[in-house]
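Before the break, one more example. Copy the sequence into your notebook; we will annotate it together after we see the structure.
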Amino acid sequence: MRVLAVFRKTVREQMRDLASLSMVLVLCPLFVLLYWLIAGGGSTSYKILVINNDAGMALEGQGVVREGDRLVEALRALKYQNGDPMLRVEVVKDRAAADESLRNRYAAALLVFPPDLSRMLHAPQEERMRFDPVILSGDANNVAFAIASVLSFTALEAVVQSLGGYDPPFHWKEEFIGGAKPRSEFDAYVPGLLILSIILLIFTTALPLIREREEKTLRRLRVSRMSPFDLLGGVSLAQLAIGALSVVLTFLVAVALGFRSEGSLIAASVVGIVCTASVVAVGLVTACFCKSATAVLTIGTLPFFLLMWFSGAAMPITRLTLFHLGTRQFALNDVLPPTHAVIALNKILAMGASLGDVGYELAMLAALTVVYFAAAVWIYKRTQLRR
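Here is what the structure looks like once it is written out:
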């Protein structure tokens, strides 16, 4: 009977704390829904760009055949067991624009078919290496590129072997954009670890504000002339200083352990610090909905996992494009600040880009910082300082 009494008491107390209860009951179903929306309701489909320069060739009794078109259709026909396409193939003409899409991770890989592709595929196997190669290009440090490469080769190999070709099926050459050569496994993990450490600032940002409430000092602050902007701004500056120090120390330790960067670590640190400011702003918004330190550790898991999993920091994620800003794509993922930091850090650390080359990503990080901070001030004033 005492067990039942404790059970009823615990249930009543938990029902009073609906915020933490909802995190337990709603968090995982919400992530499933978000992933379904981003992945298009099915399996992950990797975007492949194709520049088809194949001029074709005349075959007796068949007229002019263009095996480049046949290979494009083979790529499109590659499907999962449920019928979803494995690859989203887009035929383009501009190599420079295609390379830019790869740098921004709008696409996973690029295939360039040479003008004499049909002649190569119909030539004797021992002569195929004399022709211009099929080029596969991409970012060597992008996990999606590795997967798309395997899928592309599988589709193309099936077509080539149907023409009577075996190993090697055709002349194949791999290129890496912007000098992004394959690096060590440790080098590939460092940017993600940096982003993860920055995202943790959500909790350290929210806790000081909750402490003001729990220790009753918020009452004295309300009596003073201190505005919500003053309070949140002061907390933000302190967390920004902590985050900036963490970013610098992370890079120093990584370099001491053998990490090598193609670009400037100073430029990468600038991106990390601006990303820190945006994550701190997200932490301020999180604090607006928490009434205790316990609530921070429960409610705070929602933005933490959103930023970690759906920004591309932990794993490649499909971009659900909403609209275009000139030549840029704005996807649903882009409302999460680390999304832009991941792309910017990859350009700097793997491709040797400068700060000018990541100006768009820095501008988006700054804009999101302003938006989230303004939202935090507005919400905090109405939820914490109303009385």
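The longest helix spans residues 228-256. Residues 185-383 form one domain. Try to locate both features in your own notes.
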